[in-house]
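Data availability excerpt. The first of two example chains:
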Amino acid sequence: MGTQKISFQITSRKVANDNGEVYVGYGFRVFDENTDEELFSADDLSREESSVMELIELIRQNDVCPCHFMDVVEDFLTLLCN
């Protein structure tokens, strides 16, 4: 059985907050390179694309297993809110 290779894709979409203000929210999607299956996605994590890019780089550097992506995202959001 081979090693799973994954790829990341930054996502963006226009989002309206509770006050009706529209902004661009950035997130990411993760795919299995062999099957093209989407393994994980998270939208509207930050208004800053660079923050999401840093998060992806941390995930890559630490070789995080896809089953733990949600935990990492939750920690990321907690840090942004504090």
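And the second chain:
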Amino acid sequence: MNTFNEFNIKKQLRKAVDGLGFKKPTPIQQASYATILAGSDFVGIAQTGTGKTIAYLLPVLQDLKFSEQPQPRVLILVPTRELVIQIVEQIEKLTPYLSVRVLGVYGGSNNIVGQKQALSEGVDVIVGTPRRLYDLALSNLLRLKFIKKLVIDEVDIMLDFGYKTQLKNIFELLPLKRQNILFSATMTSYVDELTDGFLINPVKKTISISGKPLDNISQECYSVPNFYTKANLVKLLLKDKTAFSKVLVFVGTKTHADALFELLGSESDVSVIHSGKEQNHRTRSIEKFADGTSNVLIATDVIARGIDIEKITAVISFNTPFYPENYIHRIGRTGRAKQKGRAVLFYTEKERGLKETIEGLMNYTIPLRKNPEGLEVSHQLTPEEKDNPVEEIKLSNKSSLSESGASFHEKSAKNSKVKSEKKSYKKTLKEKFKKPIRRGDKIQNMKKKRKK
């Protein structure tokens, strides 16, 4: 399929697509359009940056008829506030010539009173994070029994964030007769479990092998001893204004993100974003990075899927992620729209096992670079590095990762002790009185005890 004109798209929607400059549908868009439009349950697996959002929005909007019904008929669930905002904006860009009421809802500093007011005015498509959706449903202002299509985007990261309970709670409020549409960058065991649990004979389309990075992204890695030496290496790399003109730096924790920002923050063109920041700050940081006001954005994985910014020249993984799939999501922020991208991974000796797991997932050995001349090796350690001596983490393959869950280290001696058997009340009484306790026996036993 060469153009969107070959899709069965109504003229109002086609006019918007043409206005956005979309010429040729991506493979995931080609594979999903007809199936979703036909009403079948659908599971789409495709890498970040391959057009998954448009892949489900086009058929959903094509099938959405005008209605004055106040309750929404399409529910789109995503893991982060940034993705809610991004998808709402995309829907608005696709529907300037259609009468479609869309509302984005999410928690944090956003006013739930304002969201309730918007709901009362009528909505066709609601986009939200699971917790806020469920809160609104419990208020009985949002009634999910009218939902005809359920879309869950970024399913894998949704489950990684611990939204499984919220999802099940929402499913119980939805009508049984509905179309389910799932999109994910990877097919993990958690996604399989969710798919098998509530989809009916879904059509599955996998466009790219899970874990295989895009060919236009060059990769390299550096062995660095600790946090502060990593920070010094970032400073050195950023001096190359051509290769690192627009850089996304992923850091493992909010604390480390703030600490790195303080170390780089003397430069006015550095921003930081993580789940601990207020929504206004997060939005402003992304806007500054998008328009070029800042050329470095420090971020945590929690908002990895919510950043859809073009022309990111490089992604630096300041830490090696515990989940190898997260590395794929990180580097997928660069090399978009067939542009060249660059991915740089830092790892300590403790993170070596995690790096090898990533390489096993990709079936690719990331080229090791020598640390550049002039790199200052710091002997200063963070509190975590002081408390946790260097110990190599060994993960042989992806299957061991899925079995181990979030914690890959061996249990400490304290936690590995076998707990003593907890005796039942009945067993305790039996041992104390040397015979089964029945009605009337307690008095006799007490008499025997006094005779001793």
